[in-house]
Structure formats: C-alpha cells, structure tokens
Design goal:
The complex is a heterodimer of chains A (174) and B (253).
Chain A: H1 2-19, H2 22-38, H3 40-47, H4 53-64, H5 70-81, H6 88-102, E1 106-112, H7 118-132, E2 136-142, E3 150-154, E4 157-160, H8 163-173
Parallel strand pairs in A: 1-2
Antiparallel strand pairs in A: 1-3, 3-4
Helix pairs in contact in A: 1-2, 1-5, 1-6, 2-6, 4-5
Chain B: H1 2-26, H2 30-47, H3 49-60, H4 64-85, H5 95-231, H6 234-252
Helix pairs in contact in B: 1-5, 2-4, 3-4
The chains are: A alpha+beta (174), B mainly alpha (253).
C-alpha cells in the first residue's frame, strides 16, 4: 500500500511541478487529508464504492471549490474517483516529503492539542532544524489526544513532549 | 509228597481191613444169623418136645412158674434174634465194602494223581503266582504311594516354605510401601505448606500491587483532573508549547 501511495504521490508531485505549485498543492493535500482524518462520515462517503465515482467527485469539488487550488481539487478528485480515498493521508504525506526533498528540507509532523501561532511554528521549525542538523518544514496537526505540549515526528525519530506522554510515564512509574 | 500220600493211603486201607476181620468172624450177615437161631430153636423143639408140651399143659393149668419159665425162654430167643437184626459195628465197615472202597479209593487216587492233582497244582501255582503278583503289585503300589507321599510332603514343605517366603516378602514390601507413602505424604505436606506459604505471599504481593495500582489510579485520576483543568487555560497550552520548543533548542545546544 505504501508503494502504491508513493506512486500516486509521485504522480501528484509531477502534475504540481508542471503547474509550478508543488509547495501549495502538497500543503493543501496535507490539509485535506487531515480534514478527512477528522471526519468519519466524509471518509466513509468518499470510500463508498456503492456511490458512483462522478457523485463522489462532485462532493470533492463542492467541498474544495473556492477553498483550494484547481490542481489540488483535480488531484483529490482523481484519487477519490480511483477509489483510493483511504490512501489519501499516505499520498499527502509522500507529496509533502517529495516537496521538502525538492527544496532540500525534511518534514516534521507536529501534533499539538492547540494550533500553533506563527511565531511558535517558526521557532519550533528553527529548533527542530538545529536539533536534526538540516532544515525542517513542519506540518502541524491539531490532535486533542495530545492533551498539551507537542509531539514531533521526523522520519523515524519521535520527539515527544506531550502531556499525554508524561502522564503515561507517570503511570508506568507507579 | 507223592510217596507219602501213597503210604498214608496204604496204612488206612490196612487198618480198616484188620479191624473188619473180627466182625466178619462173629457172623457176617443178618440172614445167616437168623438162620442159625432158627436152627437152634428147631433143635430145642425136637430134643425137648415133651418138656415143652408139659410146660404148655402146666401153663394152661395156670401154673405161674411154668408161665414164667416160658416167658423166660421166649425172652432169651427174642434177644438172640434181636441180636441178629441189630446193626453191625457203626464205625468199622464190612471187609468187602472195605476192599471195594479201598480199590475205588486207590483208583480214584490214581486218577486224581494223574489228572486232577496237576490241574489243581497248576491252579494253585497260578493262584499263588497271582497272589504273589498281587502282593508284589501292592508292595510296588505301596512303594509308589510312599514315594508320592514323600514327594507330596516335600512339595508341601516347599509350598509352606514358599508361602512363608512370600508372606515375608509381602510384609517387607508392605513396610517399604508404607515407608514410601509416609515419606511421600510428608513431602506432599511440606510441598503443600510451601505452596500455601507461597500462595499467601503471592496473594499478599498481589493485594499490595492491586492496592498500589488502585492508589496510583486514584492519584493519576486526580492528577489528570487537575491537569485537565489546567490545560483548558490557553496560556497553559502556550506555555507547554514554548517549553517544548525551548527544550528541543536546549538539546541541540
């Protein structure tokens, strides 16, 4: 499945490069994936093969029309029509990483209980870049289960400073 | 034996013949005796006819003495006649009878000697042999019985000895089994005690652990409640993110 997601991501990145907006498309695709992750009803609807592909594409266009670029809308519509909406998160992650590699950067998935301010995002990107030794782009995901603090994942490395993690350590200590 | 038998037979015949000769001299038969007595009476009647006639007359006249004399004479001659009809000697037979009897005896003895005695002897020998065989057989059977008895007694003795050995062995085994069972029971009891002690200890540890877990759950629950309320404060959230950024930056430093 990861290989298939990578292939779709390569296709999306190729189209976006051709359109000259890979940075925008990868970011929007990431946000769409997060939105899908947060809505079970939307995810199930777009994954339902009983619903005609044209109907599902229409739903995507209705949701994204005016809120995302045409390239992003077309890519998401294409993925949903292909019946790969369940792979959308992986495809978006791969697209983000392709974009970062194109720019000589790494991608850090940052989960926080609340949205970060721009200042916090810049300082966190700078701190992670300094910690890993190369430039890092962050993708922030608001995740209430983190409770507080931040969990940053860069490749296989996880830097967990969340309240959830601390409570877990405290529970293990007991 | 044969000679003695013949001698005995000859002695018997001679004795009978000698003893019978005297009897034959006194008057051999009843007929000749009566004939002699009748002759005597005829002579008496002829010689003393007148006396007899006179005696008869006197009797008819009633003379008692005559009558008594007559009766005396009659009685005398009756006795003589009765003597003729009396049986000869009941023990010693007449000579002719002895001769014929002896001859018959000798013939019979010869026949018996010739035919009967060998058969009887043979039968006797066979009977003797049978009896001897029976005796020998009885002796043999008695010997066999004695041998069987001896064997039986020996086997009985062996059986008794074997039974005694088995009983002794069974007693020893019973003692061994009893000792084993006792040792095993003691080991089981000791093991059960150890296990019970271990169970008690484990239960105690489990109870302590459960208590600690429950206490920690309560404490963590309280802590989470307090933290949860604190996390509702945006400033607290901001502070947590800033602390994280500072710590990541400090790790790099």
């Amino acid at each position: 499945m990861a290989e298939r997601s990578a292939s779709y991501a390569d296709a999306v990145a190729a189209v976006a490069r051709a359109e000259g907006n890979l940075d925008l498309v990868s970011d929007e695709l990431f946000r769409v994936a997060r939105a899908l992750e947060g809505s079970d009803e939307l995810r199930m609807t777009l994954s339902d093969r009983q619903i005609p592909a044209a109907r599902r594409q229409q739903i995507v266009e209705d949701l994204l029309g005016g809120h995302a670029s045409d390239t992003t809308t077309a890519m998401v519509s294409m993925i949903v029509a292909a019946g790969r909406s369940s792979d959308l998160a992986g495809i978006a992650q791969e697209a983000v990483e392709i974009n970062a590699r194109d720019r000589g950067r790494s991608v850090a998935e940052v989960r926080s209980a609340v949205a970060l301010t721009d200042d916090q995002a810049e300082r966190l990107a700078a701190a992670l870049s300094a910690a890993t030794g190369h430039r890092v782009d962050i993708k922030v995901i608001v995740d209430p289960s983190v409770m507080g603090g931040v969990v940053a994942t860069i490749g296989d490395e996880v830097i967990d400073g969340s309240v959830r993690h601390r409570l877990s350590q405290l529970r293990d200590t007991f | 034996m044969s000679k003695r038998l013949w001698a005995a037979a000859a002695v018997v015949v001679a004795a009978v013949a000698l003893s019978a000769s005297a009897a034959s001299a006194a008057g051999e038969t009843v007929g000749s005796c009566i004939f002699d007595q009748v002759t005597v009476v005829e002579e008496l009647v002829t010689v003393d006819f007148n006396e007899i006639k006179e005696l008869k007359k006197r009797i008819e006249d009633g003379d008692k003495e005559a009558k008594e004399a007559k009766e005396e004479i009659v009685e005398k001659y009756e006795k003589d006649l009765e003597g003729c009809v009396e049986a000869p000697n009941p023990i010693i037979p007449e000579v002719t009878e002895i001769i014929w009897g002896g001859a018959a005896f000798v013939v019979l003895l010869a026949l018996m000697k010739w035919k009967l005695f060998p058969v009887v002897k043979n039968l006797m020998e066979q009977r003797t042999q049978r009896i001897q065989d029976a005796i020998d057989d009885a002796d043999r059977q008695r010997a066999e019985a004695a041998e069987v008895k001896a064997n039986y007694e020996a086997e009985l003795a062996d059986a008794k000895a074997e039974a005694a050995r088995i009983v002794d062995e069974a007693r020893e085994q019973a003692a061994t089994v009893r000792a084993d069972l006792q040792a095993r029971a003691e080991a089981d009891i000791a093991e059960m005690r150890e296990r019970a002690a271990a169970d008690v200890e484990a239960s105690k540890r489990q109870a302590i652990a459960d208590l600690q877990s429950e206490v920690s759950d309560i404490a963590l629950g309280a802590a989470e409640a307090v933290i949860g309320r604190s996390l509702e404060d945006p400033e607290m959230q901001r502070q947590l993110v800033d602390d994280y950024i500072a710590r990541v930056g400090a790790d790099q430093g």
